[in-house]
């Protein structure tokens, strides 16, 4: 991505007794290796099903970077030529012009095409990218209602953050070690690389998100490249025999191809799985004389793609993001067209941005000062977009109101976050009531529909309470596993224990509403870790509640969509976006979805069977209220029912519970 090829310029001879040397000659086969890496990433992101492991292209880039830049830092350090100002001036000339050009274009497009929430997200991510902290942002962000990864406009920038952080630390370590004990540098580098790899293996299971995004568990990949660079001898030293190099290179490229074809995003990555692509990359770098390196990787089309790989890596993801949001029903450009289209700005960026700025001769301090000033100019609008909540003032009052509706819905104080083991804010969420009370239990879906039940409770003379927790279903002792959150099971079980203890201790709670995300294929486990079907978990929970004298309202989950209703409805009110959506065959002003636009989940019969014929249990069919022959409603003129593809707004909660009688639920077990 942001590696520089070694220049051809001659270097001062290294001191006698230096731990290693490196010739630094330009190698076209490394540009060819870059081409393989960027093609893997772009093809994977474009959605081609045959290359689901294409994400390993980033790991290939990391090894190349460690080899080229790590080796360059070491060579200059042992020759007494390394200067931080010179090093970082080279880095900013290489990285920042193309990144800044991309951000400037995205700011302009964003003002025309992005909803306030999307523009706010772009501002947040751009601000982090300017300061090389994207990986830290994506690690720490991850709130429950944050956009899915494919709706993050600058997700690709996380790897730039890893590299830039590595090159803040690496030169300091090199200089310190060479000053204190030069001959120990290689053992220390190898040890550090192994420690980072061991940490990656451990953290991949303990905290997969940290293992993926953070430098300490990615440093070993760059360290591997640096170890390889330091292990090379002068050109006259021993080289790998040609037959061995040929076989090794073919085996390495076969390993890369197998990883790209067989790996899946769900794998525990990086960890052990990252070892194959990184070692294969190291082998290809170590065999420049092999037939594959000379004939394939050094082939001019591969070399050209390698040269534009940084710009292509930068530009491809934002274009794919725009294609997704402008054609959210899957009617956008096909993968091959996207891949070819993304080459156009990538080539232009390389030709008219990267090359001119890299060749421009300026003093090191001048370069750093100018780029620092431009960084502030780029960061300012990014920060303003974020602080101004995506600049809703550029649109009509209806758009601004919908944006406020979404922000309010996402800020439910009664929805306990990940990590919580107790209900939130009892004074607000569980107010005391002298009369009978209705209590909504559930996860984020329960939180979303709770305003509807709160209105029903006020209408029918009930007190109201809410206990909800992200990804923690309203079941008694049964939880669903959350990949990437190893502690969630124990936390959810503790939350459920406290919740149902509260129910038992408060006899004024007459009606308990169970409202959660109920996929039919939900994998539930009990406190012992045994797998339990959804029907069994529901039957057990309902039986325990009715035995305790509570009436139960079992709420069917609302329809979920393959698009974001907020973005669609707001997009219809944005002239430029509406025009783009019409080009993608989207008809504005339609508030229903049908067919493939709706996730079809057969869990409704499971819930209905649990409720039917059971005294004290009522089934609330939300789909019957939101769906009809014309499809399922996600809004009405100037009324937004969903704030994302699956969660209701307060208006939507009212529509989903319209006409339901809590008094009937408390008095009988009739099914609705």
Outline:
The chain has 672 residues and is an alpha/beta fold. It is elongated, with a radius of gyration of 29 Å. The model is unreliable at 5-22 and 668-672 (pLDDT under 50).
Low-confidence stretches: 5-22, 668-672
Helical coverage, percent range:
55-70%
Number of strands: 14
> Roughly how many Å is the radius of gyration?
29 Å
Strand order of the largest sheet: 1-3-2-5-8-10
- Classify the beta-strand content into a percent band: 5-15%
| Mean of residue pLDDT values | 87
Q: What is the straight-line distance between the termini?
A: 58 Å
Biggest β-sheet description? 6 strands, parallel
Q: Count of helical segments?
A: 27
List the helices and strands and how they pair.
Blueprint (H helix, E strand, L loop, with lengths): L27 H19 L10 H22 L5 H30 L2 H15 L3 H7 L17 H23 L4 H22 L1 H6 L5 H13 L10 H21 L12 H12 L4 H7 L2 H8 L1 H18 L8 H25 L4 H24 L9 H14 L4 E2 L9 H4 L7 E6 L1 H17 L2 E7 L9 E2 L7 H18 L3 E7 L8 E2 L5 E2 L1 H14 L3 E5 L9 H8 L2 H9 L8 E2 L10 H8 L5 E4 L1 H5 E2 L2 E3 L1 E2 L2 E2 L9 H7 L5 H6 L5
Parallel strand pairs: 1-3, 2-3, 2-5, 5-8, 8-10
Antiparallel strand pairs: 4-6, 6-7, 9-12, 11-12, 13-14
Helix pairs in contact: 1-2, 1-12, 1-13, 1-14, 2-6, 2-9, 2-11, 3-4, 3-14, 3-15, 3-16, 4-5, 4-16, 5-6, 7-9, 9-11, 10-11, 14-15, 19-26
């Amino acid at each position: 991505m942001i590696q520089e090829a070694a220049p051809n310029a001659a270097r001062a001879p290294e001191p006698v007794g230096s731990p290693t040397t490196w010739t630094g000659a330009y190698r076209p086969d490394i540009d060819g290796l870059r081409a393989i890496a960027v093609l893997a990433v772009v093809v994977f992101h474009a959605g081609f099903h045959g290359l689901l492991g294409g994400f390993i292209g980033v790991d290939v880039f990391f090894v190349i970077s460690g080899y080229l830049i790590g080796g360059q830092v070491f060579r200059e350090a042992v020759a007494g030529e390394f200067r931080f100002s010179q090093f970082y001036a080279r880095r900013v000339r290489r990285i920042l012009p193309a990144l800044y050009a991309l951000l400037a274009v995205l700011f302009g497009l964003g003002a025309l095409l992005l909803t306030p929430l999307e523009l706010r997200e772009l501002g947040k991510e751009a601000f982090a990218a300017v300061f090389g902290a994207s990986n830290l942002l994506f690690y720490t962000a991850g709130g429950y209602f944050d956009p899915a990864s494919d709706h993050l406009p600058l997700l690709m920038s996380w790897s730039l953050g890893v590299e830039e952080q590595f090159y803040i630390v690496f030169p300091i370590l090199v200089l310190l070690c060479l000053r204190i004990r030069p001959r120990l540098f290689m053992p220390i580098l190898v040890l550090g690389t192994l420690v980072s790899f061991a940490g990656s293996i451990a953290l991949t299971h303990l905290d997969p998100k940290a293992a993926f995004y953070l430098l300490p568990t990615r440093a070993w990949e760059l360290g591997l490249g640096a170890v390889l660079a330091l292990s090379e001898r002068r050109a006259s030293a021993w080289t790998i025999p040609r037959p061995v190099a040929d076989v090794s290179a073919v085996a390495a490229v076969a390993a890369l191809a197998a990883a790209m074809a067989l790996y899946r995003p769900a794998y525990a990555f990086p960890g052990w799985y990252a070892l194959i692509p990184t070692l294969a990359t190291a082998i290809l770098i170590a065999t420049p004389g092999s037939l594959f390196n000379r004939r394939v990787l050094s082939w001019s089309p591969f070399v050209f793609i390698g040269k534009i790989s940084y710009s292509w890596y930068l530009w491809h993801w934002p274009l794919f993001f725009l294609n997704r949001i402008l054609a959210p029903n899957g009617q956008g450009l096909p993968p091959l067209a996207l891949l070819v289209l993304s080459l156009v700005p990538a080539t232009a960026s390389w030709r008219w941005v990267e090359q001119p700025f890299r060749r421009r001769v300026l003093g090191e301090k001048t370069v750093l000062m100018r780029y620092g000033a431009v960084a502030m100019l780029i960061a300012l609008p990014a920060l303003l977009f974020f602080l101004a909540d995506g600049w809703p003032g550029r649109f009509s009052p209806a758009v601004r109101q919908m944006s406020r509706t979404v922000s309010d819905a996402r800020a439910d104080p009664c929805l306990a976050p990940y990590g919580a083991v107790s209900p939130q804010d009892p004074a607000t969420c569980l107010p005391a009531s002298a009369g009978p009370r209705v209590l909504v239990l559930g996860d984020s879906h329960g939180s979303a529909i709770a305003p509807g039940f709160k209105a029903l409770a006020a209408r029918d003379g009930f007190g109201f309470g809410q206990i909800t927790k992200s990804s923690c279903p309203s079941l008694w002792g049964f939880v669903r596993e959350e990949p990437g959150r190893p502690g969630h099971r124990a936390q959810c079980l503790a939350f459920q224990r406290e919740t149902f203890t509260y129910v038992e201790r408060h006899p004024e709670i007459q009606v308990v509403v169970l409202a959660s995300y109920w996929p039919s294929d939900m994998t539930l486990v009990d406190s012992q870790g045994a797998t339990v079907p959804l029907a069994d978990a529901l039957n057990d929970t309902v039986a325990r509640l009715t035995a305790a004298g509570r009436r139960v309202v079992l709420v069917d989950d609302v329809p979920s969509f393959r698009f974001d209703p907020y973005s669609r409805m707001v997009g219809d009110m944005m002239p430029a976006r509406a025009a783009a959506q019409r080009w993608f065959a989207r008809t504005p002003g339609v508030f229903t979805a049908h067919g493939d636009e709706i996730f079809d989940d057969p869990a409704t019969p499971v819930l209905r069977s649990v409720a039917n014929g059971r005294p004290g249990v009522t089934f609330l069919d939300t789909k019957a209220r939101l769906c009809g022959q014309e499809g399922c409603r996600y809004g009405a003129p100037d009324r937004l029912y969903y704030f994302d593809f699956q969660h209701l707004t307060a208006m939507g909660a009212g529509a989903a519970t319209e006409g339901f009688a809590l008094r009937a639920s408390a008095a009988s077990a009739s099914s609705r």
